[in-house]
């Protein structure tokens, strides 16, 4: 059942989370924070530090070029228990490529991830959310959109991003970018506030497993059903 915390949101906006009661929701509430376009040498380390301090795992959809440039960050992401996904090699809008070109781009990023992050199944998040039906059917791993768009890339505002996260419902997949300091700060603030309410943050794979759902290749998901 979808649940939202309207009173919590109001409290957060009015008090900045200073006077929240430490009460948990009647049933466990799970959210998946996802971060695109990294790794960023400027902001990803700060995010990883904050997640580690809080015992929280997230999902990172990485760009292949960035993976090659900052392999130590990729290895740290994996070592600290986060999920890694494929965000193409160079952030090209896949719907503007032929199917063959799109598969080559995704394969190039997947190859870099297999080499530098370790062998595994890397979900794909299409840049800008654009992909054709032919490309979706041709690729060999699940693809993921999001169910909550914080618009962090556009507003670059800690409070607005924070509020968007706090309005998430149980089972939501939240879109963020770890290439903006405002997004990192908002995410960590939201984790602190929502964790006090008993909300748990998990990776996308963990979220699907908790719902008893197996993600399949050829399918594009926004959140577990």
Radius of gyration: 17 Å
Distance N terminus to C terminus?
10 Å
Give the CATH architecture. Answer: Alpha-Beta Barrel
Count of helical stretches: 10
The rough form would be described as globular
How many β-strand runs? 8
Give helix % range.
40-55%
State the assembly state of the protein chains. single chain
Main β-sheet description: 6 strands, parallel
Task: Tell me what the structure shows.
By secondary structure, the protein is of the alpha/beta class. It has one domain: TIM Barrel, CATH 3.20.20.370. Helix content is 43%, strand content 14%. Strands 1, 2, 3, 5, 6 and 7 form a 6-stranded parallel β-sheet that branches. Strands 4-8 form a two-stranded parallel ribbon. Helix 2 (44-54) runs parallel beside helix 9 and helix 8 runs parallel beside helix 9 (181-196). The longest helix is centred in the middle third of the chain and has 18 residues, at 99-116. The radius of gyration is 17 Å and the shape is globular. The relative contact order is 0.21. Residues 1-7, 9-15 and 18-22 have low confidence and may be disordered.
